[in-house]
Specification:
Layout lengths: L1 H19 L22 H23 L5 H23 L7 H21 L6 H22 L5 H27 L8
Helix pairs in contact: 1-2, 1-6, 2-3, 3-4, 4-5, 4-6, 5-6
C-alpha cells in the first residue's frame, strides 16, 4: 500500500508543480527543476514528494523483503530500495541548479536504485508475467538513464523514461501483493 500511496502522491505533486510553472515542458525539462525553490513556487510540494517517495519506497521494500524466502533476493531488493530512498531524499534536500554534486549523486542513486529494485524484484516468487514485466521495466529505466547521461535529447523525455518505470514497477508489485492478500490468481506465490 505504501508503494501505491507514494506513486500517487509523487505523480500528483509533479503534475501540480508542472502546471504551475509557466513554460515547463515534460519532454524538455528536468524533473528536478520543479523542486528548485529559485524556479518554482511549488518546490516545497515537489521536494516533499521526492522525500515521501524515497522513504515509502525503502520502507515498503523492507516490509516485502522481510517475507521473501531467498536471502540473496531479500538483500538485493533492500540494498537497491535503500539506494532509491537515500537518493530521493538527497534530491529533496539538495536542489538542482545549485551546482552541488550531491543532487546528481542523489538522482543517480534514486534512478539506479529504483530500477535495480525492479530487476531484483523479478527474482521474487511470482508468475512469469510479473517477472518479465519487472525485468522489462528495470531495463527500460536503466537504458533511458544512459540516454540522459549521454545527453540525448529531449532530456525530459529520457529522464522520465528512467524514472516512470520505477513507479510502474512499484504499482505493479503493490497490486500483485494486494491480490495475493485477497487470494487473487495473479499474485506472488
Amino acid at each position: 500500500m505504501l508503494w501505491l500511496l507514494a506513486a500517487a502522491g509523487y505523480l500528483a505533486a509533479e503534475a501540480f508543480a508542472a502546471m504551475a510553472l509557466p513554460g515547463y515542458a515534460y519532454g524538455g525539462d528536468f524533473i528536478s527543476t520543479l523542486g528548485d525553490p529559485a524556479v518554482s513556487s511549488w518546490a516545497p510540494l515537489m521536494n516533499a514528494a521526492f522525500a515521501f517517495q524515497g522513504v515509502c519506497f525503502a520502507v515498503a521494500a523492507a516490509l516485502v523483503a522481510d517475507k521473501l524466502p531467498n536471502p540473496r533476493v531479500r538483500r538485493s531488493l533492500l540494498v537497491c530500495a535503500i539506494g532509491n530512498g537515500v537518493g530521493n531524499v538527497l534530491i529533496a534536500v539538495v536542489h538542482s541548479g545549485q551546482g552541488n554534486p550531491w543532487h546528481v549523486i542523489g538522482a543517480v542513486l534514486a534512478i539506479v536504485g529504483g530500477n535495480a529494485a525492479a530487476l531484483a524484484g523479478s527474482a521474487m516468487p511470482a508468475c512469469t508475467a510479473y517477472r518479465v514485466a519487472s525485468v522489462g521495466l528495470g531495463a527500460l529505466g536503466l537504458l533511458c538513464l544512459l540516454a540522459v547521461a549521454f545527453g540525448v535529447g529531449p532530456v525530459g523525455l529520457w529522464e522520465r523514461g528512467s524514472v516512470y518505470p520505477i513507479f510502474a514497477w512499484q504499482i505493479l508489485t503493490a497490486v500483485v501483493l494486494l491480490g495475493r492478500q485477497t487470494g487473487s490468481a495473479s499474485s506472488i506465490s
